[in-house]
Fold each of these.
Amino acid sequence: MLPPIRCFSCGKPLGHLWEEFNERVNKGEDPKKVLDDLGLERYCCRRTLLSAVVVFPVIAKFKKV
């Protein structure tokens, strides 16, 4: 799955927040603090970013038939 472009529930654009969110969380920062800093207040948007799993690099390793 690619990073989410919009919230699945309310439709708010989230694509521009994905890279910063992912970088900061991977560095060990608390996801709650990162989401608060990014200005995400709605729980649906927070859920969308928290639950996103990017598997594209894994899929790209397989050859096309």
Note: Helices lie at 15-26, 31-37, 43-51, 56-60.
Amino acid sequence: MAYRESFYRYLMTQRDADSSDEIAQFANNAQHDLTFPKQEQDYEKLSDYLELNASYLPSMYIFDRAYRMYEDKMMY
């Protein structure tokens, strides 16, 4: 089975403190979330966590977009 990095690790590649992009802002904020499930890959588990704990995420649509990008990258 091929190695698949965690969503958090992928998300950290999207950080950009100077960007106004929503995914970059999500990544910037997630970096400071000490309880973010850093080893998780599962969409449902991540979604549940974010819905309950991520007040810094203005819309779950941003997570959905970021997760689709993550899935696309993991296919290669």
Note: Residues 7-74 form a domain with the DNA polymerase; domain 1 fold (CATH 1.10.150.260).
Amino acid sequence: MPKMKTSRAAAKRFKVTGTGKLKRNKAYKRHILTKKTTKTKRNLRKATMTDETNVKNMKKILPYM
């Protein structure tokens, strides 16, 4: 059986934690920031875990992570 290919786009966007969960950065922090509150922008800085409903698909496109 041939090797599975890792999705390079996904590999650059996700990291695996020590417990095996997928960590990701939040969206909506690139532009049009003037209308967003300071609190919103501060909360967007923090990384978060990938939702459990998406983990199965993410593991499929990231076979070696």
Note: The helical segments are 8-13, 38-45, 52-61.
